[in-house]
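Standup notes, structure subgroup. Blocker cleared on the zinc ion input:
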Amino acid sequence: MRFIKPLALAFLLPATFYGVEAKMPTSLTTQARAVLSQDSLALNQKLPFDNEVVTGKLKNGFTYFIRKNIEPKGRVTMYLGMKAGSILENEKQLGLAHFLEHMNFNGLKHFPKNELVNYLQKAGVRFGSDLNAYTSFDQTVYQLPIPSDDPELLENGLQVMRDWAQDALLDGEEIDKERGVILEEKRGGRGVQQRLQDQYFPMVLNGSLYSKRLPIGTEEILKTFPYTEIRKFHQDWYRPDLQALIIVGDIDPKAIEEKVKVLFSDMTMPKKVPQRKEYRVDLLNKNQFLAISDPELPYTVAQVLIKNEKDKVLTVGDYRNELLKNIFNQMIAGRFSELMQQPNPPFMQAGGSIGDFVANLNTFSLLVVPKPGELESGFKAMLTEFERIQKYGFTQTELDRALADMKKGNEMAYIERDKKKSDSYVNRYLNYFIDNEPALSNEVSYRLTTQLLPTLKLEEVNGLVKKYYTDLNRDILIMGPEKEKANLPTEQAVLGWVKAVEDSPVSAYEDKVSNLPLLSKEPTKGTIVSSKDIGAVQAKELVLSNGVKVILKPTDFKNDEIQIMAYSPGGTSLYTDADYFSASNASSLVDASGVGQMSNVELTKYLAGKEVSISPYISERYEGISGSTDKEGLKNAFELIYGYFTEPRLDTDVFQSTMTRAKGSLENRLSNPNNVFSDKVKEVLYGNNVRRQNATVETLTKIERDRALAIYKERFADASDFVFTIVGSFDENEIKPFIETYLASLPASKRGENYKDLNILEPSKGERVVVHKGKEEKASTQLAYYGDYNYSENENVNMEALESVLTIKLLERLREKEGGVYGVGARASFNKLPKPRYAFSIGFGSAVDKTDPLISSALDEVKKIQDQGPDKVDIEKFVAEQKRQNELNLRENGYWLNYISSSYQNNLDINRYTRRMENLNKVTPKSVQEIAEKYLKKERLFEFILMPDSK
Ligand SMILES: [Zn+2]
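Run returned:
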C-alpha cells in the first residue's frame, strides 16, 4: 500500500486531461449536441458530462459510475474513491488516514484477518500490482481489477468494495500488528529527498495545514495511538456522501447497477456528521526564499515556483485555455531541449511548465540543475530563456509544430477508442468526483479538441507568459550538496541575478528548420526472395535478397500501432576492454545526434505531428533497432531505419554536450549511499571487470568520439544476419514495398558474425558483504544466489513458481507476522545464452538491528520449502495468477514482439506458448521443492547489506 508523496523534488508536470481520451459516437446528450453542432463555438457553454457512463447517487449520498468497456476482455476494474485523506486528521490522528487504508486489507466484515488477500490471490489477482490503494491529502482510493467472467468472483468483488466503504473490522490485535509495517514504510521513505522536503514544505505550502498533514504521519502517533482514534476517523469519514464507486469493464452496466443499489443502499450516515471542509493554501502576496543543503544531494537544484489560483474547467472556454497552457508547456520543452544540445550547454538540465499544485493552487514552475559550481550562470541562463519568451514570444513555426503534435495525439486517441483499456477510464470519473474536473465523452473530447485547436492564436499563447511569469507569490528554492553550503547564495544575491537578467539585452529565438530530405541517397530496392508461414504464431517469415530476415505478425489488438524490433549477433562483446566504453556508449550518442542530413534538433522538428519512434542499440551480445509507428508513419520509420544503417552521425556538439552533462551528474555520485553499495556489490561479483562497472567520471574519459562512431558503423555495416520482427495493425501487402525498398536494400557483406562469450561469471562461493554508507538509521538487504542453470521449459516454470511461492511466504512471515518490513519479495531470472545461468534474489529494507533476525526468517522460509516443499495452496495461487496473466499477454503487441524475437534469438521452439497451460499444470510442491534444493544452495548465498555510516 503506497501513500502518495504530494510533491516531488523535480518540477511538477501539468495533468494533460485533454485529448488523450476518446470513444464510440453513440447517442450524444442534448447538451453535448448543443456544444458540438454550432459553427462558432460558444465559449461560455458548459462542458457536457460523459454520456457513455451509467451514473447515479443513492439516497444515502453514495455515488456510482458504471461503464461497459471490453478491453481487456473478461475483466473489470473497480475503484472506491473517497473525498477523505490526511488533511482531515486532527493532532492525535497524524498518519491515521493512511493507517486506515492498510487496515482495509487486514480484516473486513466478510473477509476477516488476511482472508481478503488470500481469497483474491486464489482467484489470480496479484497483491500490490493489481490489488492496491493509496492515500493523499484530500483523497483515499482503493483499486481492484478482477476477472468478470466468473460470476461468484464478480459478486465477491462488489462485496469487497462494500466492505471497504464502511465495514473494516479494526480489530485491536490487527492494528498493533500493522504498526511495524507502517513504521517500516515510513523508514523506507527516509533519505535525502525527505530531509529536504521537511525543510521546504512549510515554505512552498505557505505554512498551510497541508504542510502539517503529510499522509505518512509521525512516528510517535503511529507507535502509540489508541484504537479509539482510528475507529473515530473511520466513523467520521468513511461515509456514503464522501464515497464513489467506479466500475469499468466487460460487464452489463444495468445488471451491475441493480446489484450496487442493493448492496450499498444500507450504508448509513453517522449520527453527528462532521463537516467535510474544503481546505486551501492561501496566497501570501509576498515572495519567499530558501537555500538548504544536504550531504547526500549530489548536485545543486534551483527551483522557482510562481503560485496562483487554479483555473476551474467548467466551460468550453476553460477547456480552450487548458489547451493553450499545454501548447505553451510543449513549446518551452522544445526550446530547452534544443539548448541542451549545444556543445557547452549552460546547465545540466532546465525547463518550466504551468501545472496543478496542491489544493486550490496552480504553479508556473521553473527549474535548473546547473553544472557543478556554476549556479549563478546556470540560473541566469534558465531565466534568460523566459525573458526571451516574454520579450519576443514564440514563433508561428513553433506553434504549428506543437499544434500538429496535439492534433496527432487527439486523433490517435480517437482511433484507438474501442481498444482503450478499462483502467484508463477510471481517472476520468475519479477526478470528476473528487476534484470537479470535467469528464468528457470520447466523442466530445475528440470533436471539441479538433474544433478548438485551429482557433488557438500565437498571441494568446504568448500572453500566458505575461500572466504566469510574475514576481509576486514567487518562491525561490535552492538546494545544494553539503560541501557547497558556504557557497549557497543569499536571497539578495539571487534577486540581483534576476535583476541582471532583466536588464540584459536578449535576442530573438531563431527557428532553424532543415529543408533537406532525411536521406542523402535514396536506397536501391531489393527483393523478397522467399516467404513461409509460421503457423503456430500466425506469422510469416520473409527472407530478403540481402539475407535480412523479417517476421511479420499482423494483429488487431490495436487499431493503429506497429511495433518493430531487430537484432544481430555481435555487440560490445567483440571489442577490447580499452574500446569498451566507446562501444557501449556508441548507440546512445548516435541516437542523440539525429540521422542522415538532419541534426537531432532538425529531426525532432521534422517528426512533429508524427507518431514515429525508431532507435538503434548496441548491447553486450547484439546490435539492433527498436521502435514503433502508426500506419501513416511507416515510410518515415523505414527511412529512419535505413538511415541508422547507412548514414549515422555522431555530432561533435552532441558528444561534447553529453559528456559535459554526464560529468556533472556523476561528479558527486558517491554521496548517494545506493551508488556506493552498488559499486561494492559489482566489485564482489565481477572483480574489476570494466564491463560490469557503474559509469563514473573516470569511465567517461575513456569514451572517444571517433572510435565510438567507427564501432557503430562496423556494427551496422552488414545487415545480412539481422532479424526484424514487426507486429501490429499493418496489412502485409501495404508493408512489403517498404520492406523491399528500405530493408532489402541494406548493405550486406555476409561476414557471418557471432558474439563472443566473455565468460563473466559470479563466484560459485557466496559471502557476507556489509557496506556502511548513509545518514539514516535504516538498512537494505539483498540475498542472492548465482550459478549454472539447466535451461528447459519445465525448469523455467518451476523457477517462476519458486519465485512466486517464496514471495507469498516472505510477505506472510516478514511483513504480516513479524511486522519487520514494508515490502519484501523474491526474484528469479535465467537465460539460455551465452551459457545457461540463473540468478535468484530476495530483497527488503528494515531497521538496522532487525537485519539479522529478518535474514534468519527469510532463510528459514527458504529451508522450509527445501525440506517440506511449498504449500499446495500457494502453487494454486501461482497457477491462477499466471493463467490470468497469460490471457492478457496473448492480446498485446509488445508480448508477441518479444516472444517472436527472443524465439529466434535464443533458438527456442516458437510453438512453446501453446504448452504454457500444460506446463503450469505440471507444477507440484515436489517439483518446486527440487528446484529450491538444486539452486538455493547455502554455500552459494551472498548476503549484501547496506548499513548507515558507522559511528
Ligand atoms: Zn502504506
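Discussed briefly. Residues 1-3, 98, 102, 185 surround zinc ion (CB under 6 Å).
Next: hand off to the docking folks.
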